[in-house]
Amino acid sequence: MNTPDQSPALRYTDWTLIETQWNPDRLHARETVFTIGNGYVGTRGTFEEGYPRATPSTLIHGVYDSVPVMYTELVNCPDWLPLSVNLNGERFRLEQGEILSYERQLDVRRGVLSRSVQWRSPNGKTIDLKFERFASLADQHVLALRCQITPIDFSGYIEVQASLNGYPENQGFNHWEWLNQGKADQGVWLQVRTRSSRIELGMASGMTISGAEASLQVTSVPGYPTLTSGFMATTGQTVTIENVITVFTSKQVESPVQTAQAKLADLPTYNELLKAHEQAWSQVWQTSDVVIEGDTRAQLAIRYNLFQLLIAAPRQDDRVSIPAKTLSGFGYRGHVFWDTEIFLLPFFTYTQPAIAKNLLTYRYHTLPGARRKAAYYGYKGAMFAWESADTGDEVTPRWALPTDPYAEDVRIWCRDREIHISADVSYATWYYWQATGDDEWMRDYGAELILDTAVFWRSRVEWNTKKEYYEIREVIGADEYHEHDVHNSTFTNRMAQWNLEKAVYVFDWLFHTYPDKAIELQQKLQLTSERRSRWEDIVKNIWIPYDEKTGLIEEFEGFFKLEDINLADYEPRTKSMQSILGIDGANKRQVLKQPDVLMLLYLMRQSQEFPYDLEILQTNWDYYAPRTDITYGSSLGPAIHAILASDLGDSQEAYDRFMQAAMVDLEDVRGNAAEGIHGASAGGIWQAVVWGFAGVKLTKDGPIANPHLPPNWTRLKFKLHWRGKWHEFDLENEAGKSKLEGEKMTSPTNNPPMNSTDSLPHPFDIRGVIFDLDGVLTDTAEYHYRSWQRLADEEGLPFDRQANEALRGVSRRESLMHIIGNRSYTEAQIQEMMERKNHYYVESIKDVTPTDLLPGSLELLDELKKIGIKTALGSASKNARTVIEKLGIENRIDAIADGYSVQNPKPAPDLFLFAANEIGLQPFQCIVVEDAAAGIEAAIAAGMWAVGLGPIDRVGTAHVVLSSLDGIKWADLHAKLSRVAGIQ
């Protein structure tokens, strides 16, 4: 176990993870942390220009290949990131020259990773570089990268090279055979194939350059097709390089390389791809987001962990599943564990049920592998692999290398003995069915999973003639510190019993509901009436080591006879108890790697089935929690402890364990983040919030909440999908009061417009401020005016400053129609003029800096951030994001609604409603600050408070009118609104 890095870490906003300085000691952990993906492909956060000892990795679902010792592993696919920048022969590299400023951001709301660096070369040339990348959620086969280059103190020749690296390695092992590569009309392409599994992969790459006259050349070193461009750059001039990559494998299409080339040729611009990607993420967050107010660190942590789950979740393939380390690293070789069904699946079941269905259908497709494993060990039915890959056959390695080079290899017994995985799959199957009511899927897939695992359990249990009960010997339960001489694990026995109980129910349900399918499975699985009777007999007579008098459950037969241990005697420590005691030493003591009996109680908690009740939980918590290696044992434990501590009313313990789980990768609390994301922990923290802090219980009438929020949380908000309906929970922590809002989701557009102060709520309920851009935060009106004037002059159209006043707050198209008047133009001409004007405007705003912020705006933004008021931008401009970045306030704005966000411009309320939705607020909880009549009208139509900046004759319909934001404090604004509302 590595020692966690305790040096200054990351900064957090509600949606953004920010690294403010580069530390090479964190290289590999941060590669994991800054992973991006789209449910098909995952790419670690390595640098485009490369770095010594970096481990670049792009993993694609289902692309496995054989490897010595480990059986099979997810293959590191060709690297699409390489982008080198050379200044008159000096190559930009962070380990060379001088880093003058550095910032890397992961915006989990948009799924975009960006990096800004100001770098001085060894020869003294200073340059600004801005990198941006995303894996499109709108099209899983599209990857995109942008680099903006600005010379600061020199003019000269710059060369850029974008490459596809066809020789990636899995920690020293290369899985790929090079087949071919070449040049196409749109760029270059690469064709490779895995050595054993013979999976073919095709990639195509195209590059465009704007801001300079540039040529494009192709170099074709085998396995490394490269696009090269050179141009002369001048001081202060920004040149933009956009590189778009397409990728396919033979698991999806017959001709991957041809398909990749065709896809590349048909793609729209980078900006259009980015817009579609952002819209796709917006839709995902509509149902998957969890809002926490009062705790920014926890807010970002849960969104970050959910982001990592969402980018690893297969949306279009039901023959793959999420590996334990997602698609973010080489840990566990991309194998799938029980982590997926028990820890990850609940999040998807209740927020993204289509993805949950894919994950479970993967297990159905791997039934042949599970049956082969059962037969190998001499059993019947489906015995699922402890570690699974593409076929479902067991891929857990038999041996592991010891940490001591002189010691013997370590035998891994999980493949043979950790058999509860079969019941875990059935558990997830059952609860997916209960949550969705998807009878057709249960008929066609789920029933066979539950029934054939029941067949396995019948063959695996033994009858103890002396004690007259069924038992299961030689197993490993959830606690993996005990792997020898473990008989009658309570966790395993009760889960097997549960599996058989549900199999009896499903067997009867099928015959009653789908008799033809029942007969089909009866014949296929040899489900005789005698076998069904045996199931019932096992259910009644399997031994569960439970003392009815004390309520104490023994983890397994003889556990209480092991040597006891006091973990406090070993503190402080930075490694697991097994590392301290040795494998045999831990096996002989009452120390747990992770919750075992407590894990069983958690799994039975949802249905309140034996042995769960609060008294039994308290008794077993008091015994087992102090003996669990919760810090360095297993990352699966803290989230479960958080939920159970919530049940027991220990809010501090619950919060501490929740944050331990939530920060396991972000702050590398276990020192092993470099191996990949802890997927189970990520899924567990969603359960800790929903089942634990919110106290949600699923009843026949729908989910209900019994919240006990951490004291510093003022609000918790999330949505659940239950049997065809969406349920929105909005829980507040004000004086112990909580509330549940609405059984179904409501759209902000369903709120009636509020046209007077009579219909507006008390201003104390305001939680967000939406700012217009032009005339409010900065004055780019002059840039717009000059751009329109230039266009009007070119077209011979009358236009002056007075006419420009009518364009305030109006969209680009509406502005153009104002200028055109009665002139007749085709739609193509109108589009061309809008693009021309935008080009002029973009040219003009390149020199915008933070000094262009209007007086008072920065101070107000900082104050709002400090006191927890959400902020958003509501601007019709399609360049709003660029301007915000140049103004240096992107970290002070929680959401951006711009010209790409909605179809109907101001005075329609859509833009502001979109902004409110993005920051998770109702319209009546928002203030709009505007300087245009159309904007004031839109704000009022949206049912929001309107603050107008400027003369009365322009913004007089606003609830409050100010000359500017100069000197305005939140208290001032609040007082003015209170007076308007008649509140003293």
Walk me through what this model shows.
The protein is built from 30 helices and 34 strands. By secondary structure, the protein is an alpha+beta fold. Helix 9 packs antiparallel against helix 10. It has a 10-stranded antiparallel β-sheet.
Strand content: 15-25%
Compute the average pLDDT: 91
Number of helices: 30
Largest sheet: 10 strands, antiparallel
The total count of strands amounts to 34
Low-confidence stretches: 1-8, 735-762
Q: Distance between termini?
A: 61 Å
| Helix and strand composition category | alpha+beta
Give the spatial strand order of the biggest sheet: 1-2-9-10-11-12-19-16-15-14
Radius of gyration: 30 Å
Q: What overall geometry do the principal axes of the alpha carbons give? A: globular
Residues in helices, as a percent range: 25-40%
